[in-house]
Recover the amino acids of this structure.
């Protein structure tokens, strides 16, 4: 192979994508608003808080022009809570802790409620439904919102936490504790991902699937090569069986027999 | 499987036991007797690509040149060993391209049970591979015996998992780039 990089997306590329997440900063110096391709960056006026992209926040932080407010989930207490859910809660023995709810989606506590999508409007008046990565999942929210919403890990949690620990550890509350918790979290979730191999063959032969709700970008990137390889190989091993099954089904269909395994939807599609 | 896939070419070269059904004049060179004829009933190990072509009559229902047998790597004895404990079997000693070989063989033979055994084997071994790949000292510690027994497909899997884990460690600053 001539191309040196493996297929898929490398960790630094994933981190690059994560740099467009919005974070909250407290500026120390005045900075005029910037009109960039990605949108308008609001003017920075100390000591007013502002939401700016992570890359700009890191730049300003390195130049000591701003302090970064840690995202709401990047504190020892919410991380401890998530870790407890991941490692001890019965319901999440084989699943990942749920991602932050979308706007309008009921939170985990009252999941019986029907989701009601809340549209937002562009400056031109067009209606749109915001979705990650255009949701502010890494901004610092007021502490009171904790009581309302259980803490959740956003899509880019590995990248954002790593970059913030690297560049702005003095802005975090108890960075050593956070570092330990993040390491534990990663290990717990990686182990779950790997134990998912048992159900992968159902996914390979069709009909099955593995729930990856709540898995972060970096975790997907890390396990992509392995999981795809396993699924591909299981498919190849099971190919002859699958072929036999298809032939059998085609035969039954040709004979006009109804074997009861086809569901009604399929029949409806056929006729 | 692409045309230039070296693993696919090497899989084609693996031997398959064949029994000749007809007399073939002058083909004794396959048996090591140049110039002689091959008698019906002779058993010779032929490469997969050749055996597959010669046995093609068997599938068409006409008279065939050879009948194929299961290769030793997929014999009953190996299947029983895999059923008992997949992780201790040295697949590499059986066939360097064990899974690719079994894919091809399963296309020729109808063996439903073997598909199940192999899928189960692959799953159990893949879980072990993932654990070894994410453990930085897996390749030098007690896992060395298991890793030596991986077939070519599993080695690629190990490599994918291991490289990704290493890249992650480098990116997050836990390990140095070499």
């Amino acid at each position: 192979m001539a191309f040196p990089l493996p297929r898929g997306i490398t960790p630094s590329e994933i981190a690059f994508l994560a740099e467009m997440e919005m974070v909250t900063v407290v500026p120390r110096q005045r900075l005029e608003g910037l009109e960039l391709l990605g949108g308008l960056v609001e003017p920075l006026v100390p000591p007013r808080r502002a939401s700016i992209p992570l890359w700009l926040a890191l730049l300003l932080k390195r130049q000591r022009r701003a302090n970064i407010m840690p995202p709401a989930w990047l504190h020892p207490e919410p991380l401890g809570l998530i870790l407890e859910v991941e490692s001890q809660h019965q319901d999440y023995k084989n699943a990942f802790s749920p991602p932050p709810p979308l706007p309008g989606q009921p939170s985990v506590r009252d999941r019986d409620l029907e989701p009601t999508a809340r549209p937002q409007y562009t400056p031109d008046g067009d209606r749109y439904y915001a979705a990650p990565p255009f949701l502010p999942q890494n901004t610092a929210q007021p502490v009171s919102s904790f009581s309302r919403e259980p803490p959740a890990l956003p899509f880019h949690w590995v990248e954002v936490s790593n970059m913030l620990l690297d560049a702005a550890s003095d802005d975090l509350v108890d960075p050593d504790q956070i570092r330990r918790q993040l390491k534990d979290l990663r290990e717990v979730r990686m182990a779950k991902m790997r134990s998912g191999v048992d159900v992968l063959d159902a996914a390979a032969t069709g009909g099955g699937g593995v729930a990856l709700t709540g898995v972060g970008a970096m975790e997907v990137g890390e396990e992509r090569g392995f999981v795809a390889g396993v699924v591909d190989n299981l498919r190849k091993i099971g190919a002859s069986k699958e072929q036999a099954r298809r032939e059998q089904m085609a035969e039954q269909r040709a004979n006009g027999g109804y074997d009861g395994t086809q569901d009604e939807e399929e029949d409806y599609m056929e006729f | 499987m692409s045309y230039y896939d070296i693993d696919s070419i090497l899989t084609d070269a693996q031997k398959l036991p064949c029994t000749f059904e007809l007399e073939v004049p002058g083909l004794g060179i396959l048996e090591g007797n140049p110039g002689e004829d091959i008698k019906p009933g002779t058993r010779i190990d032929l490469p997969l690509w050749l055996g597959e072509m010669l046995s093609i009559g068997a599938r068409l229902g006409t008279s065939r040149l050879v009948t194929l047998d299961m290769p030793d790597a997929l014999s009953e004895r190996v299947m029983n060993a895999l059923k008992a404990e997949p992780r201790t079997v040295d697949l590499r000693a059986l066939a360097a391209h064990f899974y690719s070989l079994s894919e091809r063989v399963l296309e020729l033979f109808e063996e439903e049970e073997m598909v199940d055994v192999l899928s189960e084997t692959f799953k159990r071994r893949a879980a072990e591979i993932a654990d070894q790949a994410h453990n930085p000292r897996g390749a030098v510690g007690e896992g060395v015996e298991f890793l030596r027994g991986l077939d070519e497909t599993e080695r690629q899997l190990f490599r994918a998992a291991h490289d990704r884990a290493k890249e992650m460690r480098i990116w997050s600053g836990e390990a140095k780039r070499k």
Summary: Chain A has two domains: 1-102+127-197, 238-270. Chain A touches chain B at residues 6, 10-12, 15, 162, 166, 190, 194-195, 197-198, 200-201, 218, 221-226, 229-230, 233-234, 236-241, 244 (CB under 8 Å). Residues 1-102+127-197 of chain A form a domain with the Ribosomal Protein L9; domain 1 fold (CATH 3.40.5.50). Residues 105 and 111 of chain A are 9 Å apart (CA to CA).
